[in-house]
Specification:
The C terminus is likely disordered. Helix content is about 20%, strand content about 30%. The strands form six sheets. Strands 1, 2, 3, 4, 5, 6 and 19 form a seven-stranded mixed sheet that branches. Strands 8-15-9-10-11 form a five-stranded parallel sheet, with helices on one face. It has a five-stranded antiparallel sheet with strand order 22-23-26-25-24. The chain has about 425 residues and is an alpha/beta fold. The structure holds flavin-adenine dinucleotide (FAD).
Length: about 425
């Protein structure tokens, strides 16, 4: 039983960043008091599994990110079903939506992201959902019974995940994408076209260079008219056009925000004693050397873990985060990481090496710096060894001496020069914690 009061450590949020923080700080401080405030009234789950649940591949209990007794065992007080509405850093207090106040010694903001809704009238109707949270999942699931047709607004990662899940449930899916190709901000044109082919073969309708002009229906969406005048009847509408960092608690305070909440490599914000991680933060990208929002599960977990160490007094730096997506759309496996160069030869001293095998449906592309370091890569088809490429990228290895080997489908540590092989195999298992 937990009572409101003062805690040594307080966390706002209940997802990857929060779990990372608890595991980090508890490995240093076994006795400090810990509490979290969670707006969603359910046990911690993995958002990445929402499409798998809705696609009928897993059950709800498989979505939990940690066992149900995780917080009890970690001795964490959970204030669930409450929103934190204000941080008063002068007196180290967080105020909740019911007016109660929690004091803290160290605070972590792990509030994640919020789905973006474009300013199209009618997107507030009953059968319109984002594809982001447990309430979305429950709402969509209810609508699925009897649904025959769905419109998915957005042909990016989240939109395509939604499209595939609904398709698996036997629903006719229509994907609308404003850009001229799917997944445009994430992969290059070759990869986009491979995914477009796969959707087409599966019978998913795609409308590129297009979006919703009008939403029809009174309380519920019944159909949408596209910019090109075409009308699509639908039983539900999913909005998957992007996610923005949730920074409202920092706004109007001394906590610096630059799209995400700005943190140093220790994950501390501009206010001493307040840390941030995950989708709400702007963190260091080791490939570009800049601070940016890196909204991915492993970055949130590791950022939280690093924050937890530092909050408990053990100095650690988050220096191995970058963009990396492992995706699977209609039997097309894709892994990409680092910079996404779309042309054959780009400036900035970057060189592109690529190979497309249309028979084997495999595609590999590497972006190399002048000194032979991998700055980014895309693998399509054969993705099993992606971790090795990531390791080469992280360790800034000059790959020029064996760059042809990178294109072998079974490329592995055995293809590396012996000295390098042993150096890499000694890598720390806990990537990113140095
Ligand atoms: C459908 C889907 C699939 C994805 N697939 C992948 C994938 O395959 N690989 C990958 O790396 N990433 C994936 N992601 C992204 C990944 O889920 C996020 O990067 C990750 O969840 C970020 O974790 P987080 O801890 O920063 O915050 P979030 O997971 O966004 O959680 C933040 C939590 O904080 C709560 N909260 C916010 N504000 C408050 C407040 N004021 N008071 C109390 N509580 C609050 C929210 O309700 C939420 O529960 C996917 C995301 C989605 C939606």
């Amino acid at each position: 039983m937990c009572n409101m009061g003062d805690f040594d450590y307080l966390i706002i949020g209940n997802s990857a960043g929060t779990v990372g923080c608890i595991e980090g700080l508890r490995s240093v401080d076994k006795n400090g008091t810990v509490a979290l405030v969670a707006e969603e009234d359910c046990h911690v789950y993995s958002r990445a599994l929402i499409p798998y649940y809705l696609g009928g591949q897993i059950t709800r209990d498989k979505m939990y990110y940690r066992p149900l007794d995780f917080y009890d065992r970690a001795r964490v007080c959970v204030f669930q079903g409450h929103q934190a509405v204000k941080i008063d850093s002068a007196v180290r207090v967080v105020e909740l939506d019911n007016g109660s106040r929690l004091g803290y010694g160290m605070l972590l903001i792990a509030t994640g992201g919020k789905p973006v809704f474009p300013p199209i009238p009618g997107l507030d109707k009953q059968n319109v959902f984002s594809f982001h949270s447990m309430p979305d999942l429950l709402g969509i699931e209810k609508e699925l019974a009897g649904a025959r047709s769905a419109v998915v607004l957005g042909g990016g990662v989240i939109g395509l995940m939604a499209a595939e899940a609904l398709h698996k449930r036997g629903i006719k899916v229509h994907v609308l994408e404003l850009a001229e190709r799917l997944l445009a901000p994430v992969v290059d044109a070759t990869t986009s076209h491979l995914v477009e082919d796969a959707l087409q073969k599966a019978g998913v309708a795609m409308y590129l260079n297009n979006t919703i002009d009008q939403v029809h229906g009174t309380e519920r969406v019944e159909s949408v008219t596209l910019k090109n005048g075409q009308n699509i009847p639908c039983d539900l509408l999913i909005v998957g056009v992007g996610v923005a960092p949730r920074v409202e608690l920092a706004e109007g305070t001394s906590i610096e925000v630059n799209r995400g909440i700005v943190v140093d490599k220790r994950m501390q914000t501009s206010v001493s004693g307040i840390f941030a991680c995950g989708d709400c933060a702007s963190t260091y990208n080791f490939v570009t050397g800049t601070e940016q929002n890196l909204p991915l599960w492993p970055n949130a977990y590791l950022g939280g873990r690093i924050a937890g160490f530092n909050m408990a007094g053990m100095e650690r730096s988050f220096i191995q985060g970058t963009t990396m997506n492992a995706m699977h759309f209609f039997d097309v496996n894709i892994v990409n990481a680092g910079v996404n160069v779309t042309g054959a030869n780009q400036g900035d001293g970057l060189e592109v090496k690529q190979n497309y095998d249309s028979d084997g449906q495999t595609y590999r592309k590497f972006v190399l710096s002048e000194n032979g370091h991998i700055k980014g890569f895309i693998l399509v088809g054969q993705i099993a060894r992606a971790g090795i490429f990531l390791n080469l990228m992280r360790r800034k290895i000059d790959v020029r001496a064996f760059q042809q080997e990178l294109f072998k489908n079974d490329f592995g540590y055995a293809d590396l020069p012996e000295i390098l092989r042993w150096k890499l195999l000694q890598d720390d298992v806990i990537l990113g914690v140095v």
